[in-house]
Amino acid sequence: MRWLRRIDPRVFDWALALLFAVWAVLSTYTSDHVVGPAWLTALVAGASSGVAACIRRSHPRGALLSWSAAVLVLAAWLTPPEEIGPLFLGLLLFPYMVGARVAGRRALVAPPVVVVTVLAVALSSVDGYIYGDIVFPTIFGVLMWLAGRVVRSRAELTAELHEAALVAHEQREADAARAVAEERRRIAREMHDVVAHSVSTMVIQAGGARRILGRDTQRAIEAATLIERTGREALSEMRHLLCVLHAGDEAAALAPQPTLHELGALIGRSRAAGLPVELAVSGEPGELSAGVDLAAYRVVQEALTNALKHGGGHAEVRVRYADDELLLTVSDHGDGTPRPRAESGGHGLVGMRERVRVCGGELRAGPRPGGGFEVEARLPLQGEAEAALAAAAPRDPLEANA
User: Which residues contact 262 (CB under 8 A, 6 or more apart)?
Assistant: First the structure.
């Protein structure tokens, strides 16, 4: 079932909308109790059902109200709503979507809408109604709304626990790093003592050899041999000392820094991890300075990591080369599950903003109006020296005058 995660959620929305619309039309033309023009009933039921099914993720309250309005219109002037299959299924689906996707008091709109809609249908019945026609549909709709609230609460709790686990993991890694650094400092102090002792021995032996060189040549040669051996041992200890002090830095220093030319490989790794990514490049790629090239790659990398970490659904990466700037936009559409996002203070967003600022650019990050998250970076295509001066320039007039 992993392949299902790679399908764009919008495909499911359009497929469900088409299914609801076709189902409503077929229910209209196969019903024996059509009131008024059949085409008008099919239009109202099919359009409202399809639209509500299509927008149920992004606008769950709008989907519920669209479904309710169609039911009220049909009940008042056209075919009884119970003759249209998708409208009855909407009693279960749309209250659930409001409960699962709408936060806070705004979700409380669902129970009154369900009650009013069911009551209007019952009162408009030409055969009369019994209280069960009102009570049981209302119970079903409210129970589905409550089920959505439970799912949302569990999702929020899971997200909080996941975030707490990540914080604890990062804290453990930081503690381990501090312990390693402390141990390295301790070993370095010990090696410093060893090297200092070796150097002191060499100085003493050299002084003794100088004094006895004219009287006892053999002892002077032995002292010189001891000085040589002690010096070699001191150099060996010094090499170990440097390795301890710079452990882990050699690999980072020797490894080539990534560039935008490796963007395809980065997107391939994101897709393999389960995040569908679309890449769009416009403009004429030119030669970028090493700092801008690396900063651009790291911004895209961090944005895709956040999208994968926080359930981005699917992501889009747009790279536009202009005459004087490089524009990067990384947006994800979210999967509707409430999760803490990068704007809450994560270090990834701070690192991206700092990288872009050093290059003299600007970075904007925040939630998208239709759901999901978007990161936009503008990097000037100028020399690294100019970018560094622009980044280091004081931004406050008072600071400039200080």
Answer: 297
